[in-house]
Design brief:
Blueprint lengths: L8 H13 L2 H8 L3 H15 L4 E4 L2 E4 L1 H28 L4 E6 H8 L3 H7 L5 E6 L12 E6 L7 E14 L7 H4 L11 E5 L5 H8 L8 E6 L2 H9 L5 E4 H10 L9 E12 L5 H16 L2
Parallel strand pairs: 3-4, 3-5, 7-8
Antiparallel strand pairs: 1-2, 5-10, 6-9, 6-10
Helix pairs in contact: 1-2, 1-3, 1-4, 2-3
Organism: Pseudoxanthomonas wuyuanensis
Protein name: DNA-binding transcriptional regulator, LysR family
GO molecular function: DNA-binding transcription factor activity; sequence-specific DNA binding
């Protein structure tokens, strides 16, 4: 047995819009057609059904009883179709990859490269989350984390090691004590009140040991909670700071900071970490992109 044919769908759509808006003109605007096209579609639908759907009331429209019945059914059907289509579109678009970064890495290294990332990996949408302090081994709320850390890594992580860390003292050309530092002797730093940060308390002692200095002989000046603020203070000429090379590469290239003794390797590693259970292929693509960016950095 053949099912009864549906009414013409374009005509039904024109009717639904006109009935909902109470106007042929407003329906025409919504559907981007002419007033005459709406009128013709409704006439076609009325002929197909053999019923009048609108009664003309002066210059306005009034639904007939048949029109009210059809509006209720058509309105519900179009609403369901609209909702289903929206849900399908949401499901087709991959969710953003939530990437956690220490605030200094986010502000000084990641954000300046987002345009290039978008060009190189257009299929990857990131949601960036600034993280302060250590990362919870479970990485709650994150798909991955870009960080500077040291082995051994948490057992619950899959780790993409990207590059070794290099650190060194940096100072502004405007710093009043620059002349004595430019003589090139690391021991000159023993006379400085060094800028330091609570987030990297071992940075200065490690550097001192690698350059044959007694860490106990170091003098500390102004301290900061986070590396980002430490580096802003150095750029402002407040004193000598110590920083990972990649986080100050733009300042060095622009002449805002100088590195009188260059940079030395540490036990630290740049790494992209994710929960071990993660299977998102975008993490591997991002790791390869980050590895190339870090290799190209001065």
């Amino acid at each position: 047995m053949t099912a009864p044919a549906l009414p013409p769908l374009n005509a039904l759509r024109a009717f639904e819009a006109a009935a909902r808006l109470g106007s042929l003109s407003r329906a025409a605007i919504e559907l981007h057609v002419t007033h005459g096209a709406i009128s013709r579609q409704i006439k076609l639908l009325e002929d197909d059904l053999g019923l009048a759907l609108f009664a003309r009331a002066g210059r306005g429209l009034r639904l007939t009883r048949a029109g009210e019945q059809l509006q209720e059914a058509a309105g519900a059907a179009f609403a369901r179709i609209h909702s289903a289509a929206a849900e399908l579109r949401r499901g087709a678009a991959p969710a953003a990859l939530v990437l956690g970064c220490p605030g200094s890495v986010l502000a000084r290294w990641m954000i300046p490269r987002l345009d290039r990332l978008a060009r190189d990996l257009p299929q990857l949408t990131l949601h960036l989350s600034a993280q302060e302090g250590g990362f919870d081994p479970q990485l709650p709320g994150l798909d991955a984390a870009l960080l500077l850390g040291k082995r051994p890594w948490p057992a619950d992580w899959q780790v993409h090691e990207l590059a070794g860390e290099r650190i060194g003292p940096v100072v502004s050309p405007r710093y009043a004590g620059l002349a004595s530092l430019q003589q090139g002797r690391p021991a000159a730093l023993l006379d400085e009140a060094l800028l330091h940060t609570a987030s990297r308390p071992q940075a200065w002692p490690d550097w001192a040991r690698r350059h044959g200095l007694d860490p106990a002989a170091l003098r500390y000046g102004t301290g900061f909670d986070h590396l980002y603020y430490l580096l802003e203070a150095a750029v402002a000429g407040m004193g000598v700071a110590i920083a990972p090379q990649q986080l100050v590469s733009a300042d060095l290239a622009a002449g805002r900071l100088l590195a009188p003794w260059g940079f030395a390797g540490t036990d630290g590693v740049w790494a992209l970490c994710a929960p071990k259970r993660a299977t998102d292929p975008r993490i591997g693509l991002l790791a390869e992109w980050l590895r190339r960016e870090l290799a190209d950095a001065p």
